[in-house]
Amino acid sequence: MTRYAVHNDRQELICCWEAGYGETARTVASLPATATLLQRLVLAEALSRLSRHLWRCYTHPASALSSTAPNTEGWRRQQTRDSFSLVPKAIREPNLPDDGGTLIVSYDLVEESAHLVGRALCDIDDTDLTRAVIADVEAELTAVEQAECGDVSGRAQQAVTMTREDVSPAQVAAADRLLDEHTLGTDDLFLHFDPTAAAVAAAHWLAAAAATVGDLADIPAIATVRAADNIEALPHTTPTAVLEMIDDGWTPANVVLSLVQEAMVIADGELPLDSAAAYAVIEADADSRTPGRPPAPSTIRLTPLDPRRPARDLLEDLLAGIRGCWLLYNKYYESDAAEGADHVTADIGTAFRQAVRAQARAHQNRLA
Questions:
Q1: 115 φ, ψ to 5°?
Q2: For residues 186 and 154, what is the distance between their CA atoms, to the nearest angstrom?
Q3: What is the C-alpha end-to-end distance of the chain, expressed in Å?
Q4: 212 and 359 in contact (C-beta within 8 Å)?
Q5: What is the mean pLDDT of the segment spanning 85-105?
Q6: Of 49, 105, 285, 324, which is the most buried if we count CB atoms within 10 A?
Q7: What is this structure's pTM?
Q8: Rounded distance, CA 316 to CA 264, Å?
Q9: Where are the chain's structural domains?
């Protein structure tokens, strides 16, 4: 989301957003000298709140749910998304208290946030400031719409730090092509891609890398990242869980969306009743009530991902898993070289990339 702030030394309203690595900032408008500090801060807070609700429509799209029938969560999300068109008018002509102090408040969070911005601007009462704020909000609306279409350039780049419940097939395909070229990953995955979509492609390439090194080391593919942890410390838990799910027949998209969506629900303070975390809590509670059983652990890990940034955390772990496969491949490849195996060539990196690329292309249907 875009965060707004007041630069009192320069008498300006500024905004900034994350851009993959670091943040980007820009000046929105000059602030009139007649505006009090409280009025300025209220405007900045109202704009930040509006941006948060706009981007939630991106991270929680109606398309991620199975139904948009009336009064379902999908229907409510679509109603909120449809209110984007009302935002500029709500800022220009906000609902204001009548003579009796009664105020009409919208149930829709996006629409009501726009009215809050409009009321803050009315309090300051400066035409130039209002015009500049509306222009900035329209740019924010365009950025969200752009990200929804899979384009995360410009102001929409802030989407690369967000976790989305759904994925753009175009982004998955583009990330897949990038990993075909850079098997161990590249900074571009963190700078130019929605991390949920990039994680889907990375899960596919992790499975290919694990199968490749598993054949070479003569161990199950699901054991490769854990084995690589003996060479170099790696976050092996999540990549191993992903490999196990793919081995059970899950597609990379289903694996990633399952993990990410569960973490997002937990981040909202809820626990899905059909999740592994819920079963762990129930089992621990039952164990604690059973005489003779050892005491239950004092804490339980609800999700293997960081719930504050689940998609990006997952992407980082999957790329670490691919690196683990490379470490293990390097170890066994050198062992084969010492024994004079016929298939060994001088360039281990090239051999690894070619072998993994062949595996990934042979199972390209996983990304369909």
A1: -65, -35
A2: 20
A3: 31
A4: yes
A5: 94
A6: 324
A7: 0.87
A8: 17
A9: 3-161, 169-367
Residue 341 has pLDDT above 70, yes or no: no
The structure tokens listed for 305 are: 């991902």
Instruction: Compute the distance between CA of residue 159 and CA of residue 80 in angstroms, rounded to an integer.
Output: 19
The residue assigned the tokens 């691919």 is 322
Dig out the tokens for 253 from the structure. 């998209």
Residue type, 81: R
Q: How confident is the model at residue 344 (pLDDT cuts 50, 70, 90)?
A: very low
Other Cβ atoms within 10 Å of 23 Cβ, number: 12
CA distance 110 to 57: 9
Phi/psi for 295 (5° steps) reads -60, 145
The DSSP secondary structure of 183-216, one letter per residue, reads TT--THHHHSS-HHHHHHHHHHHHHHHHHHHHHH
Average pLDDT over every residue of 59-82 = 94
Distance from C-alpha of 271 to C-alpha of 277, rounded to nearest angstrom: 8
Query: Mind listing the pLDDT tens digit for each residue in 129-144?
Result: 999 999 999 999 999 9
Nearest-angstrom CA–CA distance, 318 and 209:
11
Give the pLDDT mean for 83-109: 94
Give per-residue pLDDT as tens, 36-49: 999 999 999 999 99
